[in-house]
Specification:
- The structure is a single chain.
- By secondary structure, this protein is mostly helical.
- The protein is built from eight helices and no strands.
């Protein structure tokens, strides 16, 4: 009974923080892309919802412990992904804030492009390390399933949007949008795993 209560409480906390994070990122995106707050402060607003990732990861780890799905490898993965996510967003914000079409040479622009890319590489590395290090086949399979869903979502949306832009129905989307779309797909994949009970 106590374990069920702890598990239920941890699930509610995880859902709460995940929802708060998604709403915060959506709101920050609206503020940014509608020019409600001018750069560079508009970009800095993106950091506020990123802070919600910390309690979200902690609640998720509590839920994993309560449901018996916790492992030291999963904890390391969560911490690595958290660090890489912050590196991606901070690198993105710095690169955008420093970039100026007229004043930046191509070599400097290339170096600025590398800043957020390092965070994306960190995410890829964290996922690869998890799959290599996780000895529990069930937990490893869940992660691989979620990654496959994320890749499928990214391929489907990318292909569809590509045709929309080819036929001039939709605007061009920068390629850096791949990482956020894939991350959303990973969240969908993890949700699918939970719904399936896999």
């Amino acid at each position: 009974m106590i374990a069920d209560t702890a598990s239920s409480s941890a699930r509610r906390a995880t859902f709460f923080w995940a929802t708060a994070f998604m709403i915060g990122m959506f709101a920050a995106g609206l503020l940014l892309f509608t020019d409600f707050i001018r750069p560079p402060w508009g970009m800095a607003v993106m950091l506020l919802p990123m802070l919600l990732l910390i309690p979200m990861v902690r609640a998720s780890e509590r839920m994993q412990r309560a449901t018996g799905a916790a492992s030291p490898v999963a904890v390391r993965y969560n911490r690595r992904m958290l660090a890489a996510s912050f590196a991606y967003v901070i690198g993105f914000l710095i690169a955008v804030a420093l970039f100026d079409d007229q004043a930046v040479s191509k070599p400097v622009a290339a170096m600025l492009s590398l800043l957020p890319t390092l965070g994306a590489f960190g995410m890829i590395w964290a996922m690869a390390r998890y799959v290599i290090e996780e000895s529990d086949e069930y937990l490893r399979a869940r992660m691989v399933d979620a990654a496959l869903v994320a890749t499928g979502v990214l391929l489907a949306i990318g292909t569809f949007w590509g045709f929309l832009t080819t036929f001039r129905v939709a605007p061009h989307v920068p390629m850096w949008a791949v990482v956020p779309v894939w991350a959303i797909g990973l969240a969908i994949g993890q949700l699918v795993n939970k719904v399936r009970g896999a």
